[in-house]
Design a protein that fits this description.
heterotrimer; A mainly alpha; B alpha/beta; C mainly alpha; B: five-stranded parallel beta sheet; four-stranded parallel beta sheet; 15 helices; C: globular
Chain lengths: ~300, ~425, ~325
């Protein structure tokens, strides 16, 4: 571990700022994926182990749309909406059937879907990786220099877009009728049904929303990450960590935890490049032992 | 780490059991019984994911040679049959599949087209079974250079890390002098090959240019999707030059992402694995003037035979060959020649015939354009290693400088001695 | 009660000997290394899955990090066989038995540490914690390159000196030895499951309050089961390492933990030998599918879907239940 390198970096504005912005970007993309995971768990009580494929499909759909339309913004949107639709089919077709089953069955169902979709993607788009869809033209400019830190404007755009989504999500969950229904469904679905509210509708709309967010994360990431089957695996693992640390079911917690993981990745690369992954799991274990409900999880 | 004595004892024991295994295998399956059947070659490889191109272009290289051989009537009418398995680059899968190929499919020979990690797994399986194995992809030096890992029935028909390191370092040393590249950084995948390649490159470069300074090293995971955290470090350190042994899709992602930061305007990139057609054409906007070793390009060696190989391959498979294609093509060519020479499939006989064998090749730069299977460590030498800088379009490379094999072998020897391997 | 335990002990012992002899005759009936290898592999994977089923089937704990102990066993065996220790103390021919014992012992100790922490949590939190420990273990294997060889795994092979006339370099010896060890382990597992302790586990699974009311300590039962399961997984891992002559970090990755879950699903968790049948189906599927198509995941995934949504239980469970009905 190179503590000195880390201290050096923390005390130099240039390093601090560029690593922080880098960490922010990684963290915000992660938030998009993890918020869906935590939302689905909070309301449906099910761990979507297949969440990574939604991220992957977002990237593939966006790539396909880019081939057809050539328009960046449109492609990202199509990618996200496409995954939302896929999520609807996934929930209605498969997930719905295992709500009452035990954890083992749920895990295995998701495992099966991961295996199938990873292969289908290879059959449709080929075995080889696809190049990223690239950055929109207005962002193909020299990076900004702020306090000597180098910051690509496109990364700022990603951060702001994700922040905007986070705020919208927060408003949706706290300020709208839909949000209060969702929260009510998480606490007492039977009561809602007794009041004549269709809990099925709430369930699948939450699943669609979660899928849409993961798809959006994937589509945005496709702008500079190469696209390949099984690309969902690493983000899935990170999303689990975020969900656990933040508190399962808590969107605010997922936001905070995503930032922590993004920063841990970014500054961890300076301090202990070989054990950043292990470090994140260590944090996860500590949280589970000391505070199993996570930083912002509520007691049920 | 272990001391030399225990290595030797270990090795002696391994040899003993290795041979015992072979003896048993040959009693179990007398070669004579199969006189009428095809010659079966098993190929563990990876055909999917971020490096699918590796398996695809490697097996294509084999097919190109085998088909010609089969069309010409094979070996006394016996044709060669390929059995290809996709391990998805997982070492444990590679071990399982190799074992299955040998025991269930009863292949006669293994042409190993796995990347490094999985190649070490294959090595252990064939060490025990005594099957003849030609490693066609793995460049990690220790596979053949380390006597405790080497085995009598395995041959490397691929470039080797230490050879490339010397070629790269001497090319880089010239530019260090010319352009005053003092501050260096590196970014390499965090696995055996990446660490091996980076360490040897700097070790040798420091011999040529003792004054360089390494200001930082980034070790992203293999197939890591995002290199932001490493790139921001590079941008901050403003090195004069960067060494990278990332490859395939990883290298493409890195160059795409680093270009966003304008990284290559300030720092010279020495990307040893860049100059393969499939890699260069996948990069969104390939910057001009990046440095790379010639993995495989038709323009080097600048000879008709080489251009012929490129066009034969391209017309058959619709894509240019890669570094992996020439490696497997050369391996297959050597193998066929050894089978014809010994008229047998006995691993012992073929292995004796392969040792020290030289053959003319489109990629050869030895005497009379040959490549040679060096007998002392059973690895390929005298293949073309060139370095040059990139162009955004065909022919993709300019100012290619050939590496000198004499100095490669000389520095290789020094390096082996320093490792305690000779 | 005493009499019936003795009787079942005798019966199980006879079954074990008979099945071992049957497996030995299979070796000569199928005079083919390929098929013999499949039997060896099924035995090893079966042991792995059955050890996990102590937790899942009998205790109702969904452990998601069981491959930790499998990998720990494999690395223990490999590192011991490669160590200077053997040469310095001239252990020679005893190195394999000692290595195998260590491969039960060390994963057992590891399981004690992990278990003490994990069993404090319930349900999904328990699963997540086991998963997190597994991933730390995996990261450690990757990071400690000097000892473990990092991503390449243990290289250079292991010496396997003959002991008591058994030479594991000989194919038949290896087959007979592996199947013997697995049958022995399964026999022991059976005695544990059928003991009062084993019935205690079932009681905890079915009802949390009653066992506590009956005055026995739930946690110590859970911990002991976790340790037994971990040690046996370690044994399975060490046999796998002997077979593949290596140990790989992938064995500590989460997807390796999904494999025995899948076998348990295929074969059945309510029947003692269910996971073993699951391992057989898994291995045949694995060999057949990967030999015939590259889209291995697609086929495997569809099979899992059929079991999850169709049968909803393992094959052997299904057969047993049908048999009872008739």
């Amino acid at each position: 571990m190179e503590v000195l390198a880390l201290l050096d970096c923390l005390s130099a504005p240039a390093c601090l700022l560029s690593q922080a912005v880098g960490g922010l970007k990684i963290g915000m993309l992660l938030f998009l994926v993890a918020s869906g995971l935590t939302l689905i768990f909070g309301v449906l009580g099910i761990i979507n182990f297949a969440h990574g494929i939604l991220y992957m499909l977002g990237a593939y759909f966006a790539w396909q749309a880019m081939e057809l339309t050539g328009h960046f913004g449109l492609s990202v949107l199509i990618g996200a909406i496409g995954v939302g639709i896929f999520g609807l089919a996934f929930e209605r077709g498969l997930i719905k059937r295992v709500y009452e089953s035990n954890l083992l069955i749920q895990i295995l169902l998701c495992y099966a879907v991961i295996l199938i979709v990873d292969d289908l993607v290879m059959i449709i788009w080929g075995d080889e990786f696809l190049s990223s869809i690239g950055v929109p033209e207005i962002f193909q400019v020299p990076p900004l220099f702020i306090f000597d830190a180098v910051i690509p404007p496109f990364h700022l755009a990603i951060i702001f877009t994700s922040l905007l989504i986070a705020i919208l999500l927060w408003m949706l969950m706290t300020r709208s009728r839909f949000g209060s229904l969702v929260r009510a469904a998480a606490i007492n679905p039977k009561m809602l049904e007794a009041l004549g509210i269709n809990t099925n509708f709430i369930r699948y709309s939450v699943f669609v929303l979660g899928s849409f967010l993961a798809g959006l994360g994937g589509a945005l990431a496709a702008s500079e990450r190469s696209i390949v089957s099984q690309m969902g695996n690493s983000i899935l693992i990170e999303s689990f960590i975020v969900t656990v640390i933040g508190g399962m079911g808590s969107i605010g917690g997922a936001f905070l935890a995503s930032l922590i993981i993004g920063m841990a990745r970014s500054f961890g690369a300076v301090a202990m490049p070989l054990f950043t992954d292990g470090l994140m799991f260590l944090i996860m274990v500590l949280v589970l032992i000391l505070r199993p409900r996570g930083i912002m999880g509520e007691k049920k | 780490m272990k001391n030399k004595k225990s290595y030797r004892t270990l090795r002696r024991k391994l040899m003993k059991y290795g041979f015992a295994g072979t003896a048993y295998a040959s009693i179990g399956f007398p070669t004579l019984l199969k006189a009428e059947s095809n010659i079966k070659i098993g190929i563990p490889t990876l055909l999917s994911g971020r490096v699918a191109q590796l398996g695809i272009s490697a097996t294509n290289g084999i097919k190109l040679i085998i088909d010609k051989f089969n069309e010409a009537g094979g070996f006394n009418g016996r044709k060669i049959e390929l059995i290809i398995r996709d391990s998805r680059a997982k070492p444990d899968e590679a071990a399982r599949m190799t074992r299955n190929l040998i025991n269930s499919n009863k292949v006669d020979i293994i042409l190993n087209c796995e990347a490094s990690s999985a190649s070490f797994a294959v090595q252990e399986v064939i060490r025990e079974s005594g099957t003849l194995c030609l490693h066609c992809i793995s460049e990690t030096s220790s596979l053949t250079a380390d006597p405790s890992i080497r085995t009598w029935n395995a041959f490397r028909f691929a470039r080797q890390g230490i050879h490339d390191a010397v070629g790269s370092a001497s090319y880089a040393a010239n530019l260090v002098k010319e352009k005053g590249l003092k501050k260096w950084m590196s970014i390499g995948p965090d696995y055996a090959y990446g660490r091996d390649s980076t360490a040897t490159f700097f070790e040798i470069l420091k011999k040529f240019s003792p004054n360089i300074e390494i200001v930082g090293q980034g070790w992203p995971k293999l197939f890591q999707p995002d290199y932001t955290e490493v790139i921001t470090q590079i941008v901050r350190q403003k090195p004069d030059a960067i060494y990278s042994c990332l490859w395939g899709g990883d290298l493409v992602s890195f160059i795409d992402q680093a270009a966003l930061y304008g990284t290559f305007k300030n720092s010279e990139l020495f990307a040893i694995n860049l100059a393969d057609y499939t890699t260069m054409s996948a990069i969104k906007n390939l910057p001009e003037g990046l440095h790379s070793a010639t993995r495989y390009i038709a323009a080097y060696p600048d000879r008709q035979e080489n251009r012929d190989f490129d066009s034969a391959y391209t017309s058959r498979f619709g894509d240019h060959p890669t570094n992996w294609s020439w490696e497997t093509a050369v391996a297959t060519d050597f193998l066929i020649s050894a089978i014809q020479e010994t008229k047998s499939l006995n691993p012992k006989n073929i292995s004796e015939s392969l040792k020290g064998k030289s053959r003319q090749s489109f990629i050869g730069v030895g005497e009379g354009n040959t490549v040679t299977m060096r007998s002392k460590d059973q690895t390929l030498v005298n293949y073309a290693i060139g370095w040059g800088s990139t162009l955004p379009k065909e022919p993709y490379m300019k100012d290619i400088k050939a590496a000198d094999w004499e100095s490669i072998q000389e520095l290789e020897k020094e390096w082996l001695t320093s490792k305690g391997w000779i | 009660m005493n009499v019936s335990i003795k009787d079942s002990f005798k019966k199980d012992a006879i079954y074990s000997v008979v099945s071992w002899i049957a497996l030995l005759s299979l070796y000569f009936i199928f005079n083919d290394h390929g098929i013999q290898d499949i039997i060896t592999k099924v035995a090893i994977l079966g042991l792995f899955a059955m050890s996990l089923n102590i937790l899942i089937g009998y205790l109702g704990l969904i452990a998601f990090g069981h491959a930790t102990f499998f990998a720990a066993g494999a690395y223990t065996l490999g590192l011991f066989l490669q160590s200077d220790f053997i040469i310095e103390y001239n252990i020679g021919s005893w190195s394999i038995p000692i290595a195998l014992s260590l491969s039960v012992l060390l994963p057992g100790i590891l399981a004690t540490i992990v278990g003490v922490i994990c069993i404090r949590l319930r349900e999904i939190y328990f699963s997540f914690l086991t998963l997190a420990f597994q991933m730390i273990f995996y990261s450690l294997i990757l990071a400690l390159v000097g000892i473990t060889g990092g991503d390449q795994g243990l290289m250079g092979g292991f010496p396997k000196p003959p002991f008591l006339g058994i030479d594991l370099g000989i194919h038949f010896h290896f087959y007979a030895f592996t199947t013997f060890i697995v049958i022995l382990a399964v026999f022991l597992m059976r005695q544990i499951i059928e003991s009062p302790f084993g019935y205690g586990l079932r009681m905890i699974r079915d009802n949390h309050e009653r066992p506590a009311a009956l005055g026995f300590n739930i946690r110590s039962h859970q911990l002991l089961a976790f340790i037994i399961a971990g040690s046996l997984a370690g044994l399975a891992g060490s046999l796998q390492a002997l077979l593949d002559v290596g140990a790989y970090p992938e064995w500590a990755f989460w997807s390796k933990s999904a494999e025995p879950l899948f076998m348990i699903l295929l074969g059945g968790m309510q029947t003692f030998l269910g996971p073993l049948l699951g391992a057989l189906i898994f291995e045949l599927l694995n060999d057949f599918v990967s030999a015939n198509t590259r889209y291995y995941g697609l086929i495997l995934g569809l099979v899992i879907l059929i079991f999850v949504l169709g049968f909803k239980k393992g094959l052997l469970d299904w057969i047993v239940i049908r048999g009872r009905k008739n």
